[in-house]
Design goal:
Elements lengths: L1 E6 L10 H10 L2 E8 L2 H13 L3 E5 L11 H10 L5 E10 L7 H18 L3 E6 L2 H10 L7 E3 L6 H9 L2 E5 L9 H9 L5 E3 L21 H12 L3 H16 L3
Parallel strand pairs: 1-2, 2-3, 3-4, 4-5, 5-6, 6-7, 7-8
Amino acid sequence: MLFDTHVHLNAEQFDEDLEEVLSRAREAGVEKMVVVGFDRPTINRAMELIEQYEYLYAAIGWHPVDAIDMKEEDLAWIEELSKHPKVVAIGEMGLDYHWDKSPKDVQKEVFRKQIRLARKVKLPIVIHNRDATQDIVDILKEEGADEVGGIMHCFSGSPEIAQECVEMNFYISLGGPVTFKNAKKPKEVAIEIPLEKLLIETDCPYLAPHPYRGKRNEPAYVKLVAEQIAELKEMPLEEVEKITTENAKKLFNII
C-alpha cells in the first residue's frame, strides 16, 4: 500500500474528474492521501474532501507566496479547524524567494507564527522551500520546530541539508523530480537518507514524474516515485511502499 503525503485534489484541475482520479489512485494501491490547503479557498475545499472520503486527510496552513494576505483571523481560523480529527498537520508553510509577491520579512513572520501555532496544537508541520534553505533551517531551529517535527515537502536540497533536517525531527519527502533523468540531488538524497526517514508524494497536479513530466500529475503516479527510490536503494518495491506508509502513519498519528 502507498501513502501520498501531499496532494492538491482541492485544485481546480480536478474539478471535472475527481472520482476517476481517486479510482485510479486506489487501483494503483494508494491507501491514504493528505490534501493540502494553503489559503481560504483551498482549506475550505480540503475540509469538504476529508468529510466526503474516509481515506483523505488534511494539512492546513498558509503559503509563503501569499503571506502578505494572511490576517490574524486567518491564523485563528486555522487553529479552530485544526481540532478536526482528520486534520493531521499544519502547512504548507515556509519561505519562497522565487516569487516576489510577499516581502521576505512578512514571509518569515507568517512562518514563525505558524510554527508556534503547530507547537500549540501539537501537530507536525509541512515545509515549502524555494530558494530559501538556510533561512528555513535557521527559523526551524530558532522556533523549536523539532518539538513537533514534520515534512520537508518535495525536497530538492543536498543530502547534507537533508541530514540536518532529519536531525531536527523532520522526514524528507520525495516526489516526481526524483524520477527526472538529470535530478542529481534528489537521487543522492534517496540513496543516502535512511528509508525510515523518507516519505513519498506527488504534489499533484504539479511535478508529474517521468514519463508524465509536463502533464497533470495525480496520486496514482506516486507509485512511480516509490519505484525509483526502490531502484536507487536497490531494495524491493514492497519494502519501500511498506516503510514509507508506516512513516507517514507514524508522523500523522493515523492508526
